[in-house]
Design goal:
The protein is built from 3 helices and 13 strands, in the order E-E-E-E-E-H-E-H-E-E-E-E-E-E-H-E. The protein is mainly beta and 163 residues long. The strands form 2 sheets. Strands 11-12-7-8-9-10-13 form a 7-stranded mixed beta sheet. Strands 1-2-5-4-3-6 form a 6-stranded antiparallel β-barrel. A hairpin with a 4-residue loop joins strand 9 and strand 10.
């Protein structure tokens, strides 16, 4: 699965034709208009139409009826990496197992998992003192192949340590 990457989550059907409302999981670094097809629940679907709907997308996929759209609710959507337009950005999948550091270079731990709970992505960080945080308000400053850098002041506002 290295040639595909998770780019969205189907939140619900939209309308009566089988269109899908999709939450963008790519930090805005992917446009469904760049992909010819997407992978959902082990099946490739050709994209007929893709448009922005607020911060989400509205997708029309070939062969998806209202009945199938209901069955695809809460399923992840994947796209081929070679069709991804990352605009120099990053994807959740690419941040897993990377060290999380402050802007001063202090290593806070390793990003163990990232879960999306609708309002924001929640980062789980393992290390000497495991913690989690909701990525809201520009906490992540940058990401490279080697590390993820967080704003230490903004992080202090939302950090939650595990007991």
């Amino acid at each position: 699965m290295k040639d595909v990457i998770e780019v969205g989550l189907i939140t619900k059907p939209h309308g009566i034709k089988g269109d899908l409302k999709v939450k963008d999981l790519s930090f805005g670094n992917f446009s469904f208009k760049n992909a010819s097809e997407v992978l959902v629940d082990a099946t490739w679907f050709r994209i007929l139409n893709a448009s922005k709907l607020g911060s989400d997308y509205l997708l029309s996929l070939e062969g998806v009826s209202l009945d199938l759209a209901n069955k695809l609710k809460n399923k992840s959507i994947f796209a081929r990496r070679n069709e991804v337009n990352d605009n120099g950005g990053y994807f959740c999948a690419d941040l897993i197992n990377k060290p999380l550091k402050t802007e001063s270079g202090e290593t806070l731990g390793i990003i163990d998992d990232i879960q999306n709970f609708g309002a924001s992505d929640v980062f789980y960080v393992k290390g000497e003192k495991p913690f989690l945080f909701a990525n809201i308000g520009g906490i992540i400053l940058s990401a490279t192949d080697n590390e993820v850098v967080a704003d230490s002041e903004k992080l202090k506002e939302v950090i939650s340590y595990e007991d």
